[in-house]
Specification:
globular; single chain; four-stranded mixed β-sheet; L-arginine/glycine Amidinotransferase, Chain A; alpha/beta
Length: 361
């Protein structure tokens, strides 16, 4: 699995249509998507999933008004439940360039595979059956072979937001998401089982386990709100300096784990701490607002911001870490009511030719 900062062929998104993700606050959400697409399409192709012909017409009209209807925005009319493609979509991985000739005949991208984990709406919601099909549709559209990971002849549930990789064999995840019995994805799988899965299907045999996720995260511990790789040897990690805040102790514990961790070469990580924004609360519910949910695309980094003083700290840190990319803040005070932001809604399709170590499939 290539690192997110490696070259993309495209970014996949799904146009918002399910009002239940933003109850009472849906109206501004399509405009946030338009802003995201306007920025992405300046740098790479956008593969945009729309739920119906009517939704496609609405999306085209709104994108046109927002100066975001670029020629490289491609529409796919596929029914879906929700828009969180990081979790419901396939995870693209690269394989060796010397793929068998039969693969070259059958697929336009023989060096690209679509890893299609099972999706069950975070073992929490009932509306997932349309989203479970999306990864296969993405695979077919990208003209690459689909791989369905198994454990003991049973398909494995895994969401893209539960992992983060450096493209060199190291992967980040959390115990709360994968090992807890709450919202349990794979009851038969243990820590060694997951570690073998990551090695076999994602080319990441070195696993760094963090503990708990942030308050308000209904996925029960996704790592993309906590800690992210920004280069092969550097991570950013969220910290909460207010000792009375519920995130303070869990984030300190994760920081200690990172400080003790080593990368695939046995070297310590470079760790950049970024403070959490002040709690974002709507209808008496704390939302999973975090700067770690940024998305790295060709030439840019899209960063969720919340009209908070720490917005500037996060943006300055990411500017230093990505000096050759434009850092684009996206106001996410409304978007996060859907319990996700930039990273949750996107899925990258890497360039098919990669210099990274291959994954045998």
């Amino acid at each position: 699995m290539p690192a997110e900062w490696e070259p993309h062929e495209a970014t996949w998104l799904a146009w918002p249509h399910y009002h239940g993700d933003w109850p009472g606050k849906f109206d501004p959400i399509p405009w946030v998507y338009a802003e995201i697409i306007r920025n992405l399409a300046r740098h790479e192709r956008v593969e945009l999933i729309v739920n119906s012909a009517a939704v496609q017409r609405q999306a085209r009209k709104l994108l046109d008004r927002a100066n975001a209807l670029f020629a490289n925005v491609h529409f796919h009319r596929w029914p879906s439940n929700r828009v969180w493609l990081r979790d419901s979509g396939c995870i693209f991985v690269t394989c060796s360039a010397d793929a068998p000739a039969r693969e070259s005949r059958q697929h336009r991208n023989p060096s690209l595979l679509a890893t299609k984990f099972r999706f069950n709406a975070w073992a929490k919601y009932s509306n997932w059956r349309l989203d479970e099909k999306i990864g296969s549709l993405m695979s077919h559209a990208a003209k690459c072979r689909e791989i369905r990971p198994l454990h003991r002849n049973t398909r494995v549930v895994l969401e893209g937001g539960s992992i983060d990789v450096n493209g060199r064999g190291t992967i980040l995840t959390t115990e709360e998401c994968l090992l807890s019995k709450i919202q349990q994805r794979n009851p038969s799988m243990s820590r060694p089982n997951y570690e073998k899965l990551f090695a076999d299907y994602l080319g990441a045999p070195h696993v760094i386990w963090l503990g708990r996720g942030i308050v308000g995260d209904d996925t029960h511990g996704h790592v993309d709100d906590l800690t992210r790789f920004v280069s092969r040897d550097t991570v950013i990690t969220m910290v909460e300096n207010n000792s009375r805040d519920a995130n303070h102790q869990p984030l300190r514990a994760n920081l200690r784990r990172l400080q003790a961790a080593r990368d695939q070469d046995g070297k310590p990580l470079n760790i950049v701490e970024i403070p959490m924004p002040a709690p974002v609360i709507f209808e008496q519910r704390r939302l999973p607002a975090s700067y770690a949910n940024f998305y790295i695309a060709n030439g840019i980094v899209l960063v969720p911001v919340f009209n908070d003083p720490n917005d500037r700290v996060a943006l300055n840190s990411l500017t230093q870490l990505f000096p050759k990319r434009e850092i684009v803040p996206i106001f996410s005070g409304d978007l996060v009511w859907g319990l996700g932001t930039m990273h949750c809604m996107t899925q990258q399709q890497p360039s098919a030719i990669s210099s990274q170590p291959s994954v045998k499939a």
